[in-house]
Protein 1
Amino acid sequence: MTLDLSLLPDGGLHWLIGDGQHAGIVLSSRIRLARNIAGFAFPVRAREGERLRVMHQVRAVAARLKGLEGAAFVRVDECSPVERQVLHERHLVSRELAGLDRGSVGPTGSAVLVTGDAGVMVNEEDHLRVQVFRSGFDVQGALRQAEALDAELGAALPFAAHTEFGYLTACPTNTGTGLRASVLIHLPGLVLTQEIGKVLQGLQHMGLTYRGLYGEGSDVLGNLFQISNQTTLGRSEEDLTEQLERVVRRVIEREEEARAILARDAGYIIEDKLWRAYGTLRHARNLPADEAMNLLSGLRLAAGLNLVTGLSVYTLNKLLIFSQSAHLSHSAGRVLTEGEANLARARYVRQILANEARLPE
Ligand SMILES: Nc1ncnc2c1ncn2[C@@H]1O[C@H](COP(=O)(O)OP(=O)(O)OP(=O)(O)O)[C@@H](O)[C@H]1O
């Protein structure tokens, strides 16, 4: 394996720290801006040589930018399948950029620049996908940082733009600002009270959409939803992010209300369910990925309700990422079978909980 994760500043995962607003419920806020370089075909249409030229040009420019100081440049097309999956499990590259559906060879010229909280995917659907991640609920902070980085990049690269439409992108739904603002949010209260359907339906009426844990086309796992704007054309960045913030603030309130109702009306049933989740995570010897996600969701809720103490949001976030299969393979130094990964996952989770969780008297 050639990907040295210690070279990624903060592992590219500064947001795991969990010091943002509402970080127990909103894991992260992300802004991404889609940009293309004038004079080159969009990545899906470009020949291999053209994709490589784009990659080299972005790399050369990035080395001079303040917003990407200290960034690691990772050639995704030279990574092994497990390494590409690791980057994906860290949310640093999309499924498409990682080429996870392509087998052993990554897409030529695909790369990613990684700092602790910002980065650029190169040759995804668009030439550049600028992205900034923040801990907790901080869409405006992420927007400011993304705009500063975008301004630096735009001064060095001729971005394809139209005076009337705005930034030109491979998919027309991104044309305009090229912006997608999203939060990754944990909503077990709304799921358990069966209110979630109404909440998700409501999003669609307000120009928002929801996706699973790994974005487009991915499943919702562990009650984690990615909520983002659906369209961008004809709207300003401020408009889009303010709308997302307004709605997410309301979703957080509803989640808190749902948790209070659960504690009041079904206290011992919920307590029992969460203690069972804790007990399994603490003692299981064999932990399949889907089961782990559900139990970790229970553990996060248990910490939110102060049943289990001593577990920081950082630890809860870390458990979520580092218990994924490719991470377990990467730390074992070889590709684990599914069965081996289930054993390694159980061992990893047990260790973390033995060291960090404290139980009330
Ligand atoms: N708030 C967030 N926190 C952590 N990761 C996120 C967040 N939002 C998106 N991601 C990650 O970014 C990657 C891409 O997300 P997604 O599939 O939604 O596409 P996109 O690049 O934002 O937009 P498009 O659908 O236009 O290609 C996924 O791996 C997803 O997990």
Note: The chain has two domains: 5-258, 266-356.
Protein 2
Amino acid sequence: MILSSNLGYPRIGINRDLKFALEKYWKNGISLDELQQTADRIKTANWIVQKDMGLDFVPSNDFSFYDQVLDTTFMLGAIPERFKQEKDLEGLDLYFAMARGWHNDQGKTIPAMEMTKWFNTNYHYLVPEINANTKFKLNPAKPIDSYKLAQTLNLNTRPVIIGPVTFLLLSKSEDPSFNPLNKLDEVMDLYANLFKRLREMEVKWIQLDEPFLSMDLDGLGEDAYQQLFNRFNSHHGRPKVMLTTYFGDLFANRDLIAASPFEGLHLDMTNCSQPERVLASVQEGQMVSLGLIDGRNVWKNDLTKTLNTIKEIYERFHFENIVVSPSCSMLHVPQDLRMEKNLPGEVYLWLAFARQKLEELSELKKAGNRNFTPTSFFQNNQGDVQSRREIAKIEALQITAAHKAVSTKRQSSFAQRKASQQAVLYLPVLPTTTIGSFPQTSEVRKLRSQLQKNAISYEQYKGELEREIEKTIHFQEKIGLDILVHGEFERNDMVQYFAEKMDGFVFTDNGWVQSFGSRCVRPPIIYGVVSRPEAMTVRWATFAQSLTDKPVKGMLTGPVTILQWSFVRDDQPRSETCRQIAFAIRAEVQDLEAAGIKVIQIDEPALREGLPLQKKDWPAYLDWAVECFQISSSGVKDETQIHTHMCYAEFNDIIEAIARMDADVISIEASRSKMELLQAFQKFNYPNEIGPGVYDIHSPNIPDVAEIHDLIHNALEVIPAEQLWINPDCGLKTRQWAEVEPALKNMLAAVKQARKELAG
Ligand SMILES: Nc1nc2c(c(=O)[nH]1)N[C@@H](CNc1ccc(C(=O)N[C@@H](CCC(=O)N[C@@H](CCC(=O)N[C@@H](CCC(=O)O)C(=O)O)C(=O)O)C(=O)O)cc1)CN2
Ligand code: MET
Ligand SMILES: [Zn+2]
């Protein structure tokens, strides 16, 4: 039999209902009840769609108010100590405090948990904090309540649970010598209890997410999985378990997986180099789930080809059942293509969002159970897939001349450039700057939405934004920043803005994908050859520069980040698409320089997240990623100072590649980890300049002078003063002016103090 399953559905609501409800709740605009009702409506709507598509396994517990890893932390009762001290914080408010930080009117603050990237996606999770003294306590309400809610729709769902090994491997300890895996036994006791509770409710299957099985594992990791398998060896007292892996290739861990006692195995067929050999590790009687529909991209599946693959596997391995599935949770794709009214007709035909992917699964199942005879749905599908191929072929003929041979190196060494730049910029010790964006207020967004609806003219829009820029420039001058920015008010998003100005991209009206908490992005779709018809940022930058004698930094998004945060064509190597973007950015950098901009920042926050999941694939990626940054940044004079910016990065293992990028200044996120990650730069003797963030912009908390001053001191312990810049962690777009103004003033007060101390 061919069955079908889903691993997780977008949970933000068809019109981003959850986002709006959350943000209102945080502002005390709606009650907890109303928030809960919105959540239940979203869950219910999702279940109804999935039920109607005839899925055999519909997920529950895939909804989250903020993040599924935080949910797991909460379920296990692993609340960090600092949140327990505030006795009144409980329930969902405690949960949100952990996610966003907390403060009261008396000025007491509790910093949020650290946030970082979920594997190689643009989704962020909150890093569990597990220490030797962490006490666990099972709080199974969420999976249980969600299962019960689905039952009211006559649906017996498959709860999604992050597995214990993955949970601990995602965790961090404040004591670097303590490995959270030491808590595995204790945590597995709670899981055993949870499984028992679910079994008592007659839950048949659970989906146990263990994506680390498709990553590189060291001895400890392998050992942990062995322990997991031993512990749950018997199927008594628990539901059946679909051991679920995704994002990476299972090949390296195939022997480990062959020892799994679980009743099912899900593998990501879109990341599987040798499916036959991996499938050979599936045991007699195990239910195999094939992740054939790409849960990370938006292209229509080639159903004819996929049906053939299923047939071959079925005949070759004699599996009793095969479950057809998306490769991973569909959290990472937009919900419903039918909401899109403005996509070019031919491109529309090439796309499938979450709902359309369910339809593909349903058709594959139908065809599979009709002795692998295609349904009528297959005909259109084949036409669409074919038309995409034809157009790509025609294009391929046109682009041979697209890449010019250029030098990817700056003209002189960093030391020489530094001298030339100082002669133009006259920077003090510990120069200060910001990362680019200032608050994207609802007024600014409203202007853009009015422009789109033709309710205001472009001239009006431009005039209003210029007023914002003036206000921002004057504010920065007044508080004494050294390198100013224009504030990025004209940008809906740092990737989408550029994509909209380049050829080769299309955009959605409603293709929202959750990035973290209530924040969403609409990743552009790269379908053709990328090029830049005209300058994209020069007018805003020169306008800002005309208002001040201080240098204004030109702000660009780098090629790797534009690639990484878009849906990318899957019919040519990513490196090729990235190179096309790099040439477009290079031209923009040169135009900015020609227009008199002396400092240019090329943001590459996604360079780290783009790293392949398995180390063997790193060197090849880093080679082309660094080369693309160099293509973008090397076409300028020595005097032009190039900055780059990265957030949420673990730099230890890529510091050599970061150095090869040869940016004059790099700013990084560092405050939540208290400058810990600067050690990588110190160890490597990183030669260029560094601005570690001294203020956590993801939290509404306002850092005080002493706190920032301490962080500057931590930084000075590892980085020489001549190399150190002072800036926030990241852009300020998600903050309000009422938060930004005092925070930046405090930052400058702390710098003033530090400069005095340095002067002795
Ligand atoms: N692509 C991307 N990935 C990223 C980041 C990033 O900046 N971009 N940063 C990190 C994650 N951080 C993020 C930080 C902020 C937001 C964010 O603020 N997103 C906004 C949407 C931004 C946007 O597209 N804005 C549009 C549309 C805004 C909108 O909702 N407009 C209203 C109307 C406006 C109104 O009346 O208020 C509508 O269309 O209904 C605009 O400004 O034009 C949100 O969720 O609210 C997202 C990610 C890592 N990954
Ligand atoms: C996610 S990195 C953001 C960089 C961008 N220049 C900003 O300030 O918003
Ligand atoms: Zn950033």
Note: The pocket of methionine (ligand 2) is lined by residues 435-437, 494, 555, 603, 605, 645, 647, 730-731, 733 (CB under 6 Å).
